[in-house]
Amino acid sequence: MRITFNNQTGFPASEVYWTIIGQNQNNQFAHITVDGNGNGSLVPMSTSDNNPDGYADYSYPLSQCSAISLPKNLYIDSARIYLSIGSYLPIQVQSGGYAPPSITNPGIAGYNTIFDFCEFAFIPGPGGSVYNQLNFNTGSVDFISLPILANLSGGDLTAGLTVGYAATRSAIFNAIAACKDPNFKGLIIQDASNTYSTDLRIISPADVFSGIVSGPVLQYFTTFFDAYIQALWTQYSLKALTLDISGSIYTGKVDSANNFNFTDNTGATVCTIPGLGSGSTNPPAITSLDVLGCRNSMAFGNATQLNIQKYIAAAINRTVMDTLPNNQMGDSWCNLATQYYTNSNAPIHYYAQILHSNSLVLNGVQACYAFSYDDVCEQSSSIVGQDTDGSLALSLTLPAW
Q1: CB of 232 within 8 A of CB of 317?
Q2: Fewer CB near the last or first residue (10 Å), C or N of the chain?
Q3: Do both 293 and 367 map to the same domain?
Q4: Which of 18, 22, 33, 27 is nearest to 136 (CA)?
Q5: Residue 10 belongs to domain with CATH number
Q6: What is the domain extent for residue 260?
């Protein structure tokens, strides 16, 4: 598989870097290194790679290498392609893992670096395939700093697949800055060092932390969906919600203790989501930040519970849970995409709405990963291709600033 990097930012190639890190077949974290002919190989990471400042440099400027060829039998999983502007990406190699720059801790090296990443795996395909399969997405779950455009071609694909953002960086930042809800402007993180006289990134409302955003913005998103969640729990205490996930039918209703209970076709309770204000519970009570971040109460328990929580979180983030036709959710409501982020009776997740509105169309929808469960109803930017003959090619473009 060949990976090509295209730089349209206006910054010289010597100031645009890529870094690739993932896990090998032995579940060791490893990085891609390139020889003089542009051939890439996977090398296990070691704490000895850390320089005296405590950070390793696995980056390549585009002026040194703008394309790499990976063997079609290379195995790399849980991988990221990082792209950074102005500096290599400092990586702290740890025993059994690594830490990239933090977007919430200014004390970590690289915080003031403009960077972003894509996620991928290049591993044998399903069903005992002898060919490696690329699973790829441009992810903006936690933040966006560089609106990456990706094209996948060759291999088993009869036509190329293109995903990512159809907008310049400034267009996306300006849209957030001019958002109807002014609190979203508070998610734009400025460059304190003023190195490039520009903003560093826009963080997801799920990643608000004290010291990163102002106190009022922190408080606003901490309770962002509270009123909407409470209204939903009231609504479904009076009527039942039917959830269809790949033919498995669950019925949900809120009881007198404010617990949203879901039962299967035998009547057995398979998932419970305590309502707001329930205190410390097991399972955990729902919060706005849980919904925004798809964590804790929205990522708790066994596979059935996780599936139910996934659909609930997606419906709340998209603000359609109170307007579902016939109170039915699941595979049957995937045709409601035109109604996402339009509910006048709920707070709108403008981070997700703006990123989707600036994304390319994939399978009939403007696709991107704006929150962790954006793959519900296939709204995400995930693409797949098998390297059947060594011709699979991934092209990543950083558009005009």
Answers
A1: no
A2: C
A3: no
A4: 22
A5: 2.60.110.10
A6: 226-346
Tell how strand 328-330 and strand 188-190 pair up. Answer: unpaired
Is residue 147 included in any domain, yes or no?
yes
247 backbone φψ class: left, alpha, beta (φ>0; ψ -120 to 50): left
In the DSSP assignment, the letter for residue 232 is H
Those residues of the chain that have pLDDT short of 70 are 192-197, 278-280
Cα distances (Å, whole numbers) of residue 282 to 26, 301, 330, 335, 371:
35, 10, 25, 34, 25
Asked whether residue 203 falls in the same domain as residue 283, the answer is no
pLDDT for position 194: 55
Listed in sequence order, the residues at least 6 apart from 116 whose beta carbon sits closer than 8 Å to its beta carbon are 82, 83, 143, 144, 145, 146, 148, 201
For residue 125, what pLDDT is reported? 87
* Domain shared by 152 and 39, yes or no: yes
Q: Is residue 351 part of a domain?
A: no
Cα 341 from chain centroid?
18
At 66 the pLDDT is 97
Number of domains in the chain: 2
